[in-house]
Request: fold
Amino acid sequence: MKKEKILVTGGTGYIGSHTVVELQNNGYEVIIVDNLSNSSLEVLDGIASITGKKPDFEQIDCCDMSAMERIFNQYSDIKAIIHFAASKAVGESVEKPLMYYRNNLVSLLNILELMSKYNCPNLVFSSSCTVYGQPDKLPVTEDAPVKAATSPYGNTKQIAEEIIRDAIHADKNLKSIALRYFNPVGAHPSAAIGELPNGIPNNLIPFVTQTAIGIRSRLRVFGSDYNTPDGSAIRDYIYVSDLAKAHVIAVERLLENRNRKGLEFFNLGTGRGLSVLEVLNEFEKATGVKVEREIVGRREGDIEKVWADPSWANSELGWKAETSVSAMLQTAWTWEKALKNKK
Ligand code: UD1
Reply:
């Protein structure tokens, strides 16, 4: 059984916690570093209830260099880092750009410096399909041009990829896999962990489930005049645990020295685009619950349509998104109901 230690920053967050579960289920030892700015300690209990083991946890902000250095000293045998810790609200990033640049970039700079200093060369980085902007060709492949970002949040992901590229160029010992996520949704089937939006959700699925359960009166569908079959915007929704599994594969690839270049990029999507209205239909079909909606104008900064060509991840990583839309939406609904019961 493998026992390598993996440092997971942002490991109590939404994608982070699902990835910790998959790492532990594959025999890895996990150390979570998280400042709990957008998550809570209870997530650790949720993880333990699934895997039978509470991961090591340190409440630290990755921007705090001396605290991070203490972790590298304390756990001298960290074999890889998965760096999730970042702020991710597009609208907030427009209002507080400097906070976003500081938080998302200083944390990465600290980690890269410590990786070189402590000879810990393997990094899996949380990137996003936002780097493609509105692609010229769909489905979008990894070699599509990176387009000018439409928000400071998106810009932090683009700049982060460039910082990693330059760091690897200067220190040939370093290796990284940047995973470009499409739209992660759903929760672990146990409903022990899931997405916990702070306040009013920005993202579609938590808004849908909160409307279905009666926390919100109706969902606003942003835009009805896009150049799509039903006029609403199209995204590639991917089940969070499928996404999490790709991180385990990426870690293995780095540990076994199988990545071909210093820095590799992979699209993590299903390859299928769904419009907002199709998502609502699928949700109602899967759960039997009606979602009140109102069609309103476009949301500023939204793109019209994007979905992945995941064939590079399929062939090269041997990874494939497996969960149906109906099943992923059901897990989101089960999670929302579990949250209600906890209150
Ligand atoms: C955005 C970012 C993505 C980021 C993610 C994290 C861009 C282009 N995308 O994804 O990089 O990782 O946030 O938070 O920067 N919608 C409604 N009503 C709602 C909410 C959403 O109609 O109440 C629609 C949106 O207009 C969009 C779709 O649902 O068409 C998905 O929206 P959302 O879940 O917010 O994700 P993105 O904007 O695609």
The pocket of uridine-diphosphate-N-acetylglucosamine is lined by residues 88, 90, 128, 130, 151, 154, 183, 202-204, 207, 219-222, 233, 235, 276, 299, 302-303 (CB under 6 Å). DSSP finds eleven helices and 13 strands in the chain. The mean pLDDT is 96.
